[in-house]
Specification:
Blueprint: H1 24-74, H2 77-88
Length: 103
């Protein structure tokens, strides 16, 4: 694994080469530190997963947009005029529905 920054460097506190504590209190403390580190890593993994999903969604949006632009670049002038004419046609007015509210 390539080290990118201080976050990736393991401190002497985190190295697994340390001897196992002799006292019960030392073992409990080490166990608590390990659980805390596991929780931190799980939280970080969840954050990475959310970010990965957001990046994938954004990539899909960009791909769809690129496809639309590519189609527009490939259309003939006649097709472009027809598309613009369809956009300029008046749309029927939306009717509002009335609802009576009682307080």
């Amino acid at each position: 694994m390539k080290t990118k920054g201080l976050h990736d460097i393991r401190s002497s506190k985190n190295l697994l080469t340390r001897p196992i504590p002799i006292s019960k209190a030392g073992r409990l403390g080490e166990l608590a530190r390990l659980e805390q580190e596991k929780d931190r890593l799980r939280t970080e993994m969840e954050r990475w997963e959310r970010n990965r999903k957001q990046v994938e969604e954004r990539l899909l949006e960009l791909e769809r947009r690129s496809e639309i632009l590519q189609k527009l670049l490939e259309e003939t002038p006649a097709e472009a005029e027809e598309r613009l004419a369809q956009r300029e046609q008046p749309r029927p007015a939306k009717r509002w529905e009335e609802i009576s509210l009682e307080y």
